[in-house]
Amino acid sequence: MTDRLRTYEGRVLPKQDEEVVDQGLQFDLTTLSRRRALKVFGFGAGTAVLAACGSGGDSTGASTSNATDSSGSAATSSASLSEIPDETAGPYPGDGSNGPDILQESGVVRRDIRSSIGSARGTAQGVPMTLELTVLDMADSGAAFKNAAVYAWHCDRDGNYSMYSSGVENENYLRGVQIADADGKVTFTSIFPACYSGRWPHIHFEVYPDQDAITDSSKVIATSQVALPKNVCDAVYATSGYERSVTNLAQLSLDSDNVFGDDGGKSQIATATGSPSVGYQVALTVPVDTRTAPSGGGTGR
Protein backbone atom coordinates (compact mmCIF):
# COMPACT_ATOMS: atom_id res chain seq x y z
CA MET A 1 0.00 0.00 0.00
CA THR A 2 1.24 3.46 -0.81
CA ASP A 3 1.86 6.29 1.66
CA ARG A 4 2.35 3.98 4.64
CA LEU A 5 2.78 6.03 7.78
CA ARG A 6 5.98 5.63 9.83
CA THR A 7 5.35 4.09 13.24
CA TYR A 8 7.28 3.50 16.47
CA GLU A 9 6.25 0.61 18.71
CA GLY A 10 2.82 0.50 17.07
CA ARG A 11 2.17 4.27 17.26
CA VAL A 12 2.05 6.66 14.36
CA LEU A 13 4.85 9.24 14.52
CA PRO A 14 3.22 12.69 14.80
CA LYS A 15 6.17 14.24 12.91
CA GLN A 16 6.56 11.96 9.90
CA ASP A 17 9.69 13.71 8.58
CA GLU A 18 11.59 13.74 11.88
CA GLU A 19 13.59 11.10 13.75
CA VAL A 20 12.05 9.27 16.73
CA VAL A 21 14.02 11.42 19.19
CA ASP A 22 12.52 14.60 17.72
CA GLN A 23 8.82 13.75 18.07
CA GLY A 24 8.14 16.11 20.96
CA LEU A 25 7.60 15.97 24.72
CA GLN A 26 4.17 14.29 24.70
CA PHE A 27 5.43 11.47 22.50
CA ASP A 28 8.55 11.04 24.69
CA LEU A 29 6.54 10.91 27.90
CA THR A 30 4.12 8.35 26.47
CA THR A 31 7.01 6.14 25.40
CA LEU A 32 8.68 6.41 28.79
CA SER A 33 5.43 5.63 30.56
CA ARG A 34 4.96 2.50 28.50
CA ARG A 35 8.35 1.19 29.58
CA ARG A 36 7.95 2.35 33.17
CA ALA A 37 11.24 4.17 32.61
CA LEU A 38 10.33 7.23 34.65
CA LYS A 39 10.76 5.21 37.84
CA VAL A 40 14.33 4.33 36.91
CA PHE A 41 15.76 7.21 34.93
CA GLY A 42 13.78 10.24 36.09
CA PHE A 43 12.15 12.93 33.96
CA GLY A 44 15.30 14.26 32.31
CA ALA A 45 16.35 10.93 30.80
CA GLY A 46 13.59 10.79 28.19
CA THR A 47 15.67 11.79 25.19
CA ALA A 48 18.57 9.51 26.12
CA VAL A 49 16.30 6.52 26.50
CA LEU A 50 14.65 7.15 23.15
CA ALA A 51 17.98 7.60 21.41
CA ALA A 52 19.27 4.32 22.80
CA CYS A 53 16.16 2.41 21.74
CA GLY A 54 16.18 3.37 18.06
CA SER A 55 13.22 3.10 15.67
CA GLY A 56 10.71 0.28 16.01
CA GLY A 57 8.04 -1.11 13.72
CA ASP A 58 4.68 -2.82 13.70
CA SER A 59 5.20 -6.42 14.80
CA THR A 60 1.81 -7.64 13.61
CA GLY A 61 2.52 -7.38 9.89
CA ALA A 62 -0.56 -5.16 9.47
CA SER A 63 -0.44 -1.46 8.76
CA THR A 64 -1.03 0.83 11.71
CA SER A 65 -2.27 4.39 11.45
CA ASN A 66 -3.89 5.05 14.80
CA ALA A 67 -2.34 6.83 17.80
CA THR A 68 -2.31 3.98 20.30
CA ASP A 69 0.52 2.49 22.32
CA SER A 70 1.33 -1.21 22.51
CA SER A 71 -1.12 -1.75 25.35
CA GLY A 72 -3.94 -0.28 23.26
CA SER A 73 -4.32 2.80 25.48
CA ALA A 74 -5.52 5.85 23.60
CA ALA A 75 -3.44 8.98 23.31
CA THR A 76 -4.62 11.88 25.47
CA SER A 77 -3.91 14.64 22.95
CA SER A 78 -5.85 15.25 19.73
CA ALA A 79 -2.90 17.03 18.07
CA SER A 80 -1.81 13.95 16.14
CA LEU A 81 -5.29 12.48 15.60
CA SER A 82 -7.29 12.53 12.39
CA GLU A 83 -11.04 12.00 12.43
CA ILE A 84 -12.07 8.55 11.21
CA PRO A 85 -13.32 8.92 7.62
CA ASP A 86 -17.09 8.89 7.20
CA GLU A 87 -18.15 6.06 4.92
CA THR A 88 -21.30 4.51 3.55
CA ALA A 89 -23.30 2.24 5.84
CA GLY A 90 -23.89 0.06 2.81
CA PRO A 91 -27.19 -1.41 1.65
CA TYR A 92 -27.48 -3.74 4.67
CA PRO A 93 -27.18 -1.54 7.79
CA GLY A 94 -29.96 -3.14 9.82
CA ASP A 95 -30.36 0.10 11.78
CA GLY A 96 -33.79 1.03 10.42
CA SER A 97 -32.45 3.41 7.78
CA ASN A 98 -32.92 0.82 5.02
CA GLY A 99 -35.58 -1.63 6.12
CA PRO A 100 -34.87 -4.02 9.03
CA ASP A 101 -33.89 -2.62 12.43
CA ILE A 102 -32.01 -4.81 14.91
CA LEU A 103 -31.36 -1.82 17.17
CA GLN A 104 -34.94 -2.10 18.43
CA GLU A 105 -34.37 -5.72 19.51
CA SER A 106 -33.99 -6.70 23.14
CA GLY A 107 -30.53 -8.17 23.65
CA VAL A 108 -28.80 -6.20 20.90
CA VAL A 109 -26.31 -4.81 23.44
CA ARG A 110 -23.98 -7.80 23.63
CA ARG A 111 -20.35 -8.79 23.24
CA ASP A 112 -20.77 -12.11 21.38
CA ILE A 113 -22.48 -11.44 18.05
CA ARG A 114 -22.00 -14.86 16.46
CA SER A 115 -25.57 -16.02 17.12
CA SER A 116 -28.91 -14.46 16.30
CA ILE A 117 -31.16 -13.00 18.98
CA GLY A 118 -34.92 -12.93 19.48
CA SER A 119 -36.84 -15.61 17.59
CA ALA A 120 -33.93 -16.35 15.24
CA ARG A 121 -31.67 -19.28 16.13
CA GLY A 122 -28.78 -19.30 13.64
CA THR A 123 -25.07 -19.12 14.50
CA ALA A 124 -22.42 -17.92 12.06
CA GLN A 125 -19.47 -20.27 11.47
CA GLY A 126 -15.92 -19.25 10.65
CA VAL A 127 -12.47 -18.43 11.99
CA PRO A 128 -12.90 -16.75 15.41
CA MET A 129 -12.27 -13.01 15.55
CA THR A 130 -12.28 -10.51 18.40
CA LEU A 131 -12.82 -6.92 17.32
CA GLU A 132 -11.68 -4.11 19.63
CA LEU A 133 -12.44 -0.49 18.77
CA THR A 134 -11.11 2.39 20.88
CA VAL A 135 -13.28 5.49 20.48
CA LEU A 136 -11.64 8.86 21.14
CA ASP A 137 -13.41 12.20 21.48
CA MET A 138 -11.53 14.82 19.45
CA ALA A 139 -13.79 17.52 20.87
CA ASP A 140 -12.39 16.61 24.30
CA SER A 141 -8.67 16.72 23.42
CA GLY A 142 -8.65 13.11 22.26
CA ALA A 143 -9.91 11.69 25.55
CA ALA A 144 -11.52 8.28 25.72
CA PHE A 145 -15.18 8.53 24.69
CA LYS A 146 -16.68 6.81 27.71
CA ASN A 147 -20.25 5.50 27.28
CA ALA A 148 -20.33 5.99 23.51
CA ALA A 149 -22.38 3.24 21.86
CA VAL A 150 -20.89 1.37 18.91
CA TYR A 151 -23.00 -0.72 16.56
CA ALA A 152 -20.89 -3.13 14.49
CA TRP A 153 -21.94 -5.49 11.69
CA HIS A 154 -20.39 -7.48 8.85
CA CYS A 155 -21.03 -10.32 6.42
CA ASP A 156 -20.67 -14.00 7.22
CA ARG A 157 -18.22 -16.59 5.87
CA ASP A 158 -20.25 -16.85 2.66
CA GLY A 159 -20.40 -13.10 2.08
CA ASN A 160 -24.05 -12.82 3.16
CA TYR A 161 -25.55 -10.19 5.45
CA SER A 162 -28.13 -11.33 7.98
CA MET A 163 -31.57 -9.69 7.75
CA TYR A 164 -31.08 -9.08 3.99
CA SER A 165 -29.30 -11.78 1.97
CA SER A 166 -31.17 -14.73 0.50
CA GLY A 167 -31.34 -17.60 2.97
CA VAL A 168 -30.45 -15.53 6.04
CA GLU A 169 -33.23 -12.94 5.91
CA ASN A 170 -34.63 -14.27 9.16
CA GLU A 171 -31.29 -14.26 10.98
CA ASN A 172 -29.69 -11.27 12.70
CA TYR A 173 -26.26 -12.63 13.66
CA LEU A 174 -23.00 -10.69 13.25
CA ARG A 175 -24.71 -7.52 14.48
CA GLY A 176 -24.53 -5.99 17.93
CA VAL A 177 -23.91 -2.98 20.15
CA GLN A 178 -21.30 -2.41 22.84
CA ILE A 179 -20.95 0.54 25.24
CA ALA A 180 -17.48 2.06 25.54
CA ASP A 181 -15.76 1.61 28.88
CA ALA A 182 -13.67 4.19 30.73
CA ASP A 183 -10.89 3.73 28.16
CA GLY A 184 -13.27 4.22 25.23
CA LYS A 185 -13.02 0.55 24.28
CA VAL A 186 -15.67 -1.78 22.92
CA THR A 187 -15.04 -5.46 22.20
CA PHE A 188 -16.99 -7.89 20.04
CA THR A 189 -16.60 -11.65 19.71
CA SER A 190 -17.32 -12.66 16.13
CA ILE A 191 -16.02 -14.57 13.10
CA PHE A 192 -13.75 -13.35 10.34
CA PRO A 193 -15.87 -12.04 7.45
CA ALA A 194 -15.63 -13.15 3.83
CA CYS A 195 -14.40 -11.18 0.87
CA TYR A 196 -17.31 -10.85 -1.49
CA SER A 197 -17.16 -9.68 -5.09
CA GLY A 198 -16.27 -6.02 -5.54
CA ARG A 199 -15.34 -5.08 -1.95
CA TRP A 200 -12.21 -5.28 0.17
CA PRO A 201 -12.84 -7.33 3.36
CA HIS A 202 -14.31 -4.96 5.92
CA ILE A 203 -16.43 -4.42 9.03
CA HIS A 204 -19.06 -1.68 9.30
CA PHE A 205 -19.68 0.35 12.42
CA GLU A 206 -21.66 3.34 13.66
CA VAL A 207 -20.85 5.44 16.72
CA TYR A 208 -23.65 6.95 18.82
CA PRO A 209 -23.25 9.39 21.74
CA ASP A 210 -24.79 6.95 24.24
CA GLN A 211 -26.93 3.83 24.53
CA ASP A 212 -30.22 5.74 24.52
CA ALA A 213 -29.42 7.13 21.06
CA ILE A 214 -29.05 3.79 19.25
CA THR A 215 -32.75 3.43 18.48
CA ASP A 216 -32.58 6.48 16.20
CA SER A 217 -30.11 6.17 13.30
CA SER A 218 -30.31 9.94 12.72
CA LYS A 219 -28.36 10.43 15.97
CA VAL A 220 -25.25 8.67 14.70
CA ILE A 221 -22.00 10.58 15.29
CA ALA A 222 -19.85 8.69 12.79
CA THR A 223 -20.28 5.90 10.25
CA SER A 224 -17.18 4.13 9.03
CA GLN A 225 -15.56 0.81 8.12
CA VAL A 226 -12.61 -1.26 9.33
CA ALA A 227 -10.30 -2.55 6.57
CA LEU A 228 -8.83 -5.97 7.30
CA PRO A 229 -5.09 -6.55 6.63
CA LYS A 230 -4.26 -8.52 3.49
CA ASN A 231 -1.80 -10.92 5.13
CA VAL A 232 -4.43 -11.94 7.65
CA CYS A 233 -7.10 -12.28 4.95
CA ASP A 234 -4.79 -14.54 2.94
CA ALA A 235 -4.23 -16.77 5.97
CA VAL A 236 -7.92 -17.01 6.86
CA TYR A 237 -9.13 -17.54 3.31
CA ALA A 238 -6.79 -20.50 2.90
CA THR A 239 -8.97 -22.39 5.42
CA SER A 240 -12.04 -24.48 4.69
CA GLY A 241 -15.26 -22.56 4.10
CA TYR A 242 -13.66 -19.41 2.69
CA GLU A 243 -12.82 -20.75 -0.78
CA ARG A 244 -14.79 -18.12 -2.70
CA SER A 245 -13.01 -15.34 -0.84
CA VAL A 246 -9.67 -16.37 -2.36
CA THR A 247 -10.87 -15.63 -5.90
CA ASN A 248 -12.65 -12.43 -4.89
CA LEU A 249 -9.68 -11.00 -2.99
CA ALA A 250 -7.32 -11.71 -5.90
CA GLN A 251 -9.35 -9.26 -8.01
CA LEU A 252 -9.11 -6.39 -5.49
CA SER A 253 -6.72 -3.98 -3.85
CA LEU A 254 -7.15 -1.34 -1.18
CA ASP A 255 -6.33 1.32 -3.76
CA SER A 256 -9.03 0.11 -6.16
CA ASP A 257 -11.72 -0.42 -3.51
CA ASN A 258 -14.64 2.00 -3.89
CA VAL A 259 -14.60 2.85 -0.16
CA PHE A 260 -10.94 2.70 0.89
CA GLY A 261 -9.50 3.64 -2.49
CA ASP A 262 -9.31 7.40 -1.93
CA ASP A 263 -6.34 6.98 0.41
CA GLY A 264 -5.73 3.24 0.49
CA GLY A 265 -7.60 3.05 3.80
CA LYS A 266 -4.51 4.22 5.68
CA SER A 267 -6.44 5.31 8.79
CA GLN A 268 -8.86 2.37 8.72
CA ILE A 269 -6.58 -0.66 8.43
CA ALA A 270 -6.77 -2.64 11.63
CA THR A 271 -3.88 -4.25 13.43
CA ALA A 272 -4.29 -7.99 13.85
CA THR A 273 -2.59 -10.77 15.78
CA GLY A 274 -3.32 -14.46 15.97
CA SER A 275 -3.69 -17.38 13.58
CA PRO A 276 -6.49 -19.24 11.78
CA SER A 277 -6.27 -22.09 14.30
CA VAL A 278 -6.80 -19.96 17.42
CA GLY A 279 -8.49 -16.90 15.89
CA TYR A 280 -7.50 -13.26 15.45
CA GLN A 281 -7.57 -10.15 17.61
CA VAL A 282 -8.39 -7.19 15.38
CA ALA A 283 -8.07 -3.63 16.71
CA LEU A 284 -8.56 -0.07 15.47
CA THR A 285 -8.54 3.34 17.13
CA VAL A 286 -11.53 5.46 16.13
CA PRO A 287 -11.18 9.23 16.66
CA VAL A 288 -14.54 10.98 16.26
CA ASP A 289 -15.30 14.67 16.27
CA THR A 290 -18.72 15.73 17.51
CA ARG A 291 -18.08 19.25 16.21
CA THR A 292 -18.33 18.11 12.58
CA ALA A 293 -21.53 17.10 10.82
CA PRO A 294 -21.62 13.37 9.93
CA SER A 295 -21.39 12.81 6.18
CA GLY A 296 -21.46 9.01 6.06
CA GLY A 297 -24.34 6.56 6.07
CA GLY A 298 -26.42 5.95 2.97
CA THR A 299 -26.82 2.74 1.00
CA GLY A 300 -23.66 2.42 -1.05
CA ARG A 301 -21.53 -0.71 -0.75
Architecture blueprint of SSEs:
Blueprint: E1 7-8, E2 11-12, H1 25-34, H2 38-41, H3 46-53, E3 128-137, E4 143-144, E5 149-153, E6 175-179, E7 185-191, E8 202-208, E9 222-227, H4 230-237, H5 243-250, E10 271-275, E11 279-288
Helix pairs in contact: 1-3
Domain Intradiol ring-cleavage dioxygenases: 120-198
Biased composition (Low complexity): 60-82
Protein name: Dioxygenase-like protein
Descriptive account of the structure:
Keywords: Dioxygenase, Oxidoreductase. The protein is of the alpha+beta class. It folds into two domains: 20-53, no CATH class; 102-288, Aromatic compound dioxygenase (Protocatechuate 3,4-Dioxygenase, subunit A, Sandwich), CATH 2.60.130. 13% of the residues lie in helices and 20% in strands. It has helices at residues 25-34, 38-41, 46-53, 230-237, 243-250, and strands spanning 7-8, 11-12, 128-137, 143-144, 149-153, 175-179, 185-191, 202-208, 222-227, 271-275, 279-288. Strands 3, 4, 7, 10 and 11 form a five-stranded mixed sheet that branches. Strands 6-5-8-9 form a four-stranded antiparallel sheet, with no helix packed on it. It has a two-stranded antiparallel ribbon with strand order 1-2. Strand 1 (7-8) and strand 2 form a beta hairpin. It is globular, with a radius of gyration of 19 Å. The protein starts with 6 loop residues before the first strand and ends in a 13-residue tail after the last strand. The relative contact order is 0.19. The model is unreliable at 29-76 (pLDDT under 50).
